[in-house]
Amino acid sequence: MITPNDRTIPPETLGSLLSVLASLVWLGVAAVMAQAFGDLMAGHPVDPLRTGLWVIVLWGLRAALDMMGQLFLARAADERIDVLRQEIVTAEAQAAAPSALGGAGSIAALTAEKLEALRPALLRYRPARMQVMVIAPVILCIAAWHSWAVALVLLLSGPLIPVFMALVGWAAREASARQLLEVGQLSDLLVDRLAALSDLRLIGAGPATVNSFARASDDLRGRTMAVLRIAFLSSTVLELFSALGVAMVAIWVGFSLLGELSWGGWDTPLTPSAGLYLLLIAPEFFQPLRDLAAAWHDRSGADAVMGEVETWRSEARPRRMGPGRGAAPAPFTSLATRGLRHRGVTYPDIRLEPGSSLAVEGPSGAGKTTLLRLLAGLEQPDDGMILVADAALSEETADAWRSGIGWMPQAPHFVNGSLRHNVGFGEPVAKETIETAGLTGVIGLLPRGDLTRLGERGAGLSGGEARRVTLARALHGRPGILIADEPTADLDADTARRIGDSLLRFAEAGGTLVVATHDGALAARMAQRITIDRRAAV
């Protein structure tokens, strides 16, 4: 932001000023050319070398100014888009709940594709608006100096273009907003179908999926064509008025030079040089209006994108604690809560020491997973405190606290790499970690051992084996506390017991274990148990 004491000109302002100067240089080029051809028509001698040199110098100056202006505008556009993209990515990384705009596909479309719609507006709209404010009045004054009739034609025909552009622009903005909404929805649909691709193939839903994409693509095509129809309509209106204006100027100049018209001037005959100059600058009077009309559609699309950004900014979503930077893990000594309340649920106070184990029970939707997220600093409580080593968890200590946590989510997730990479992400994996997670037998059955590529769906692993890989990943960093969300969900009794054995081995080795579960058998093996009931809290 520019402060009153900051003398630096913003790059977008400097770029717009340079584009205006480039257009003003054209008036000088037109004057040199009009004088040369006017002298030839009048039979006066003309120095072609001198005239050509002036034209080349002025054209070179115009090209240099225009190029510099575009460079400054491009830099300003890059900076603006980068700032918005960084803001969205940073906020989404810290958000603890999905956006109301849609899923990951919508947010990805906003950051990668939709923000790029700002670039044409940043490159074209502001310089076009400044040119209309400067170039058009200058040309109007020059025309009035030579002929009040030409000035009257330009004055009457010129303002009609922005009026019609504004009327068409309102419709263009609504059409652009609808088209951008379709882009986000199609991106969400693509992400959803790709995530379930293997399941869709197994149940034979491929043709139905293809048909749904075809319908969504047709809807997007219809929205896009609606925007293009409005653009073509506005271009037709623009060219009609500009062509009529230039034609009327040409008619008056032609008949005046032929001596057929004696009005429209200032009681002085129109010279060939002045007539040619008026013919050369008349199209330039409409050129900034053309540029503004073209940029008006860019601005409509940019307004639609910024409207979506403002909607995203206005969302009140829970945010994780801490900036999310890498930090050395803090040694675990104790974890406690006091008066914790979040989303209308009051949680019982707890206190955990090294070697403790806690089962968090309750019906679905009671807030078990939310409590785990609060303990990990992934959400900020509405009230109460989370105490780590008897000190309140804060923005300054949250990153170090999370670095020492092992997190085992309810749904196993994999990257398209080997089993070893899915556990250590490129770092060596300790044998102790493999043994604690119960992966030794699993690795022995895989065709290439821990180098077997799993893919993003964990191909070749059963549900229990996938949970063990997830557990090994959580144990890889030697955490002081392990937080597991429904680690035995959807598993048979024998597999669930084995997963429970692995979890308890971690606690017996001195680690602290917190488990949210519906599994009564697993909960009974924990040293402490608490029950959360949203209905009782309400």
UniProtKB/TrEMBL annotation:
Membrane-spanning parts: 17-37, 49-65, 128-145, 151-172, 230-258
Domain ABC transporter residues, every copy: 330-538
Localization per record: Cell membrane
GO cellular component: plasma membrane
Record keywords, A-Z: ATP-binding, Membrane, Nucleotide-binding, Transmembrane, Transmembrane helix
Membrane topology: Multi-pass membrane protein
Domain ABC transmembrane type-1: 14-301
Highest taxon of source: Bacteria
A GO MF label: ATP binding
PROSITE patterns in the record: ABC_TM1F, ABC_TRANSPORTER_1, ABC_TRANSPORTER_2
Identification of the protein by name: Cysteine ABC transporter permease
Species the sequence originates in: Donghicola eburneus
